[in-house]
Amino acid sequence: MQRDLSAMEGMLFDVLVVGGGINGTAAARDAARRGLVVGLVEKHDFGWGTTATSTRLIHGGLRYLEHFDFALVREGLREREALLRWAPHRVKPLPFITPIYKKSRRGPLAIRVGMYLYDLLSYDKSLPSHRWLSASEVLALEPHLNPEGLRGGALYYDAQVDLPERFCIDHAREAASFGARLANYAEVVEIALEQTPHRVTVVDHLTGKRHVLQARLVINAGGPWADAVMPQGGVQGRGEGAREQVARRLRKTQGIHVVVDAFTRHAIVQLAERDGRVFFVVPWRGYALIGTTDTDYDGDPGEARASAQDVAYLIDETRRYFPGVRMDPVYLTTAGVRPLVLRRPGESESQTSRRHLVLDSAPGKSWGIVTILGGKLTNHRVVAAEAVDIACRKLQKGTGTKAPDGPFFGGDVDVKKDLSSWKKEYEALSLSDETWEQLAFLYGSRTPEVLELCRQDPELARPLSPGSEVIAAQLVYAVEKEMCRRSPDFMLRRSLMGLTPGGMARAADVRKMMAELLSWDDAELQQDLEQTDREAAKIGVPKATSALDAEGRKEASP
Fold first, then answer.
1. N or C of the chain: less Cβ packing under 10 Å?
2. Would you say residue 202 lies in a domain?
3. Quick check: is 15 in a domain?
4. CA distance 554 to 356
């Protein structure tokens, strides 16, 4: 996967995808697999926006049953099963407990009915069916739960993806293997619809240069930036009013999460007393991920931050369920903006459907902009397929039906069996068990490609930073194969290095090696340091952490 905007400038794309989040990269993958000539540009890095700030769950959406949205739940459950099957290194089963108290807004009967419906709608599942628990059984499984007024609960299963950002890398690389051309740090600043092919002006944020790309059709996968991607105004007969149409249907809501020390064995479904909102405590990489909130947001989605009030809301509501648990320090926070579809005026944030909507700016025409709004991480394949279906019909090219199912990039793996085989074959590298575990998790069947770098240069088998399970070969691989161009790309989206308490304090080690690999000058080093500080601040890590570490004075604590 090579980044070359100059080469892209000389191509005529059938489809240019704008946005490199989960929907955009999935659309590029789908379109390329159907034989379209595909380009994709992302203004920051793949998976940087909404994808990176999700609750990291793959689920049908049990709470959507309250709104009788059985079709959405069924779609999610079907996709959950597909992702468990086609991405076994990414998606893992996760047990949930829903505790029920005497003062709960939903009593035992409502929960029982919901659980039976959930099982019924997931009739083709590989996960266990739900099980009803007495109060004593709930406390045996989760001893820190508040026992006062506890009536019992339900144990059921959904799934988890620890690093959804890697899904975006997987899709991007698979799209590239089918001929797609992609570029991160490439922002669309103008789309001219006056003629076909459309002229799309892109600014390369790594070089400052402007490039004009040509595409017969644009797929707008900008997520919460979808309205900003649309051209201003419009030309008569060429999508006039399309921006207003998108803006009118787009509802932006912010959700935040906090990361604290682990205190549960299962994911816990909680109901906020203050506003009745459902949120979760999720075991995540040895810590607890608590979230999410759901409040309207009208600012720049890239500037979303977790406020002290939002953090307090999550902690205070969780303490009602776990009164004896210490939930400080808060190691990390995330804040992201959902691109929801507004369907009825006056509906609350939580009532707004998670159903997606695909808009065509020029129905029946062979040109225009196809815009994706809404959707969930779980159903991203369905969302992408619908957008590409429309593109194929408009262009009268491609198969017109979604690409055949099959393993995701790196997903053709039996993790336990293959990991054992790799350990024997590469025994001479003397890697730690923690390193082996995260290699298989991150790369799946592509793991030997990283190991071969170590075989060619044993020095690359060393820890990238003292005490880290991440090895130097992974950074080389990320730069050469995964379009990694800045330190936070690697720390937050190619690996989990920066998403652990104190992890961003290792940024100087990553920066030093990347500077050598990419031949950075002093200005580029400074740009990388500044971006690291900005992204550290976005996840609640003080700016001084990366700055102090970069100067080599001391390692910051979380």
1. C
2. no
3. no
4. 47
Angle CA 500–501–503, to nearest 5? 65
Q: Is residue 398 scored above 90 in pLDDT? A: no
What is the per-residue pLDDT for 216?
98
Domain of 493, CATH number, reads: 1.10.8.870
Find out whether 453 and 477 touch, Cβ atoms under 8 Å. Answer: yes
Domain containing residue 135: CATH number:
3.30.9.10
What is the CB neighbour count within 10 angstroms for residue 346? 5
Q: How many domains does the chain have?
A: 2
Q: How far is CA 427 from the centre of its chain?
A: 33
Which of these three, 288, 321, 339, is where a domain ends? 339
Total number of residues shown for the chain: 558
Quickly tell me which residue has 């002229």 as its tokens.
Answer: 199
State the Cα–Cα distance between residues 63 and 114, nearest whole angstrom.
Answer: 8
Strand partners, 211: 202
Nearest to 1 by CA among 169, 163, 165: 169
Question: Residue 532 burial (CB < 10 Å; 0-12/13-18/19+)?
Answer: buried
The two tokens of residue 474 are 């992974």
Within a domain: residue 110? yes
Q: Is 238 helix (H, G, I), strand (E, B) or coil?
A: strand
What pairs with residue 460 in β-bridges? none
Tokens describing residue 146: 């508040």
CA nearest to 59, candidates 354, 443, 342, 339: 354
* Residue 332 near residue 259, CB atoms below 8 Å: yes
**Which is it for strands 267-271 and 278-284: parallel, antiparallel or unpaired?**
antiparallel
Collect all residues with Cβ–Cβ distance below 8 Å to 225 and sequence separation of at least 6: 19, 43, 49, 301
As given in the structure block, the two tokens for residue 323 are: 């009164």
Domain span holding position 500: 415-550
Do residues 323 and 426 share a domain? no
Is residue 558's pLDDT more than 80?
Answer: no
Average pLDDT of the residues of the chain = 92
CA distance 445 to 25: 20
Of 56, 88, 25, whose CA–CA distance to 376 is shortest? 56
Asked whether residue 259 is domain-assigned, the answer is yes
DSSP E strands, 324-467 = 332-341, 357-360, 369-373
- Give the Cβ contact number of residue 350 at 10 Å: 16
Q: Convert the pLDDT of each residue in 65-80 to its tens digit.
A: 888 899 999 999 999 9
**CA dist., res. 294 & res. 258, Å (int):** 14
| DSSP element (H, E) containing 41 | strand 38-41
Q: Say yes or no to pLDDT of 192 above 60.
A: yes
The pTM assigned to this predicted structure is 0.94
Task: Look up residue 371 and give its two tokens.
Answer: 């815009």
Q: Which residues pair with 159 in a beta bridge?
A: 58, 93
> Is beta strand 267-271 parallel, antiparallel or unpaired with respect to 91-101?
parallel
What is the rounded distance in angstroms from the CA atom of residue 269 to the CA atom of residue 522?
Answer: 49
142 vs 147: CA distance, rounded Å = 10
Q: Please indicate, yes or no, whether residues 434 and 531 belong to a single structural domain of this protein.
A: yes
> How many Å apart are CA 215 and CA 13, to the nearest integer?
4
